[in-house]
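Below is how a single chain appears once it has passed through the pipeline. First comes the sequence as given, then the structure the pipeline wrote out for it. We keep one example in the README because the format questions we get most often are answered faster by looking than by reading.
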Amino acid sequence: MIKYIQLGLDYGTSSAKMVFRDYQAVGGERSYVIDDINGDYRVPTNVAFNKKTREFVFGGHEATGTDDWDVYYSIKMRLAEEIKQHDKKYYYGEIISFPDGVSARDIAIATVWYLAELAHLRIEKFYGASRNDIKLQITMGIPMSFFSDTVLREGFLEVIRSAYWLLKHQDGKIIRGGLLSIDRLQELSEQARNEVQKKRVPDTNSVRDWLRTEAESALTWAFTSPNIKQGLYAKADIGAGTTNASIFRITERHDATTGRWQKDGFAFFGATSDAVGMDCIDEIMQKHGLLDFRSNEDSMLISHPDLSVECGKYVNLMHEAVETAWGIAYSKQKDVNQWKTLNIFVFGGGSQVTQVRNKMTVHPYVNRNCLSAAEQVIKIIALDKPSDLLTASGASLVDKDLPFLLVAYGLSNNRLSISEVKNPSEIRTIPPPFQMERSFVPFDEM
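Resulting structure:
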């Protein structure tokens, strides 16, 4: 039996998270987190290069303490800089040069292909199906500011389409082990790019089958969750290398038939992506000789309060991303009363750090002294677990997992697609989930 599967790929600066959705599941749709036998759902996205064997290693490799290896981090941001021909800075950190003739684009294409191959194998195993029984559509998330930039959008579109072409037309064994020689990487990247350039994506709606913004994807569950009410919200997604922030509104209407209030509108008013994240905090901890700090930043800051001041400058920069998004919204209607009452969702690794969470409760209006003391503090809203979100391994999800998985979860549901609007009156009406038309394009034309 043919299975039509939508894969949501959250390709992050330090790790990728993947969720696949089965629209044909018995008893109703189901989405599954792709995890391993230990319940780990984060696949490292750093890429290593062995200078002796001239091979790239995908899937995570620290390779510390040896001169035989170079390790490249935050390929996603280095790709953005490359696409923009380095006229804007997206990557912060040590720049380790790629081997001659190799670009961030080549490495990103191979990385996404590797991730897609891992996902495909996991889905085959989950259903006990053959490769040809799975019809897979992949949608990858990028920051809203990238999607709004035509050049960046086209660059990332080329990456996901090229990776998909490789998934469809190359033997998965080539990449499955996570090893690829430099010559093979260059050859396959060029071949895939040449193939996808033969057929352009016709329009923006078709682009959204391949790419959607991380902001709208992260908030798919906020819109569909019965526990989130109408109102103005901010969102801060604090990952390893970036902080993505946005301002959005959810509206409701009263359904006379059921006698209930039902969400009917969703709009983004401002969004930004800044190159500051938990890597900045980790760098400080590493400088001070701390060990095992990754994913333990909160306890480290509590036990080493002297670091809070030094880390505070980066926490402030994370909050500045929210201030920028709020400022974009405010510029569309310069009435503080329109924008002052809001709550915030906090996602990503930063959501686990008390110092970061406390900062996110500060109102994002830069002239907040004009507000009352009560108005200067906003509330962090917690999301409950989607009822249709499970794990492929059968492991249980806990509340702390949700901030890391909601982008991939939203990308696996391609029916809710919202772009940034130009003024506050442009709130798009969204039909109830059971009435939404599903767009499924298995990309068989490739």
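The chain is about 35% helix and 20% strand.

See the next section for the split statistics.
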